[in-house]
Design brief:
By secondary structure, this protein is mostly helical. It is built from seven helices and four strands. The strands form two sheets. It has a two-stranded antiparallel ribbon with strand order 1-2. Strands 3-4 form a two-stranded antiparallel sheet. The protein is globular. One of its GO terms (cellular component) is small ribosomal subunit.
């Protein structure tokens, strides 16, 4: 059964919180286009979807809803999604006032800037454990970026992430992961990697 024409026409004008359009939002990193979901617009970041039932299905969850879900942390905030939606709405209004840009685009750019490209993993069993440099998959980059953003938000660093400022919590953590990766690649000690500048 096909949808009526007036409903299809209305779907083109869906705006987040009835304010911000999804149409001009673009993902500038081609590797993350499949994992930052902005193609299916929603009015609210509260779809009640079952995005954790299968592997990789969380990539289909709207990116603003993923941000909202990650705000519901630390025991006392668990399950309070309406409160998290309200916080995101107020934060987006502040971002719009400060930058005069679409807050959805600012969020997408912040996720791209914050996601670490390289990391290290532990190789070996029991006795000898050594670190091995690895690349980070696109989905994990998005997951870690959203987690770092929400942790950094608690430390009031959200506004600096878009500019790539180094005093942002999320950017600091990304650079720290990069230093470990770089130290492993060139076989230096962890003490020497503190002096590395990018």
């Amino acid at each position: 059964m096909a949808l009526p024409v007036d409903i299809l026409a209305e779907s083109q004008g869906i705006r987040l919180f009835n304010k911000w359009s999804y149409e001009d939002v673009e993902v500038k990193d081609i590797s993350l286009t499949d994992y930052i979901q902005i193609r299916n617009p929603v009015y609210l970041p509260h779809t009640a979807g079952r995005f954790s039932t299968k592997r990789f299905r969380k990539a289909q969850c709207p990116v603003v809803e993923r941000l909202t879900n990650s705000l519901m942390m630390h025991g006392r905030n668990n399950g309070k999604k309406l409160m998290a939606v309200r916080i995101v709405k107020h934060a987006f209004e502040i971002i719009h006032l400060l930058t005069d840009q679409n807050p959805i685009q600012v969020l997408v750019d912040a996720i791209i800037n914050t996601g670490p490209r390289e990391d290290s993993t532990r190789i070996g069993s029991a006795g000898t454990v050594r670190r091995q440099a690895v690349d980070v998959s696109p989905l994990r980059r998005v997951n870690q970026a959203i987690a770092l953003l929400t942790i950094g938000t608690r430390e009031s660093a959200f506004r600096n992430v878009k500019k790539g400022s180094s005093n942002s919590y999320a950017i600091k953590k990304k650079d720290e992961l990069g230093k470990y990766f770089f130290a492993i690649v060139i076989n230096t000690d962890d003490n020497e990697c503190d002096d590395i500048k990018y």
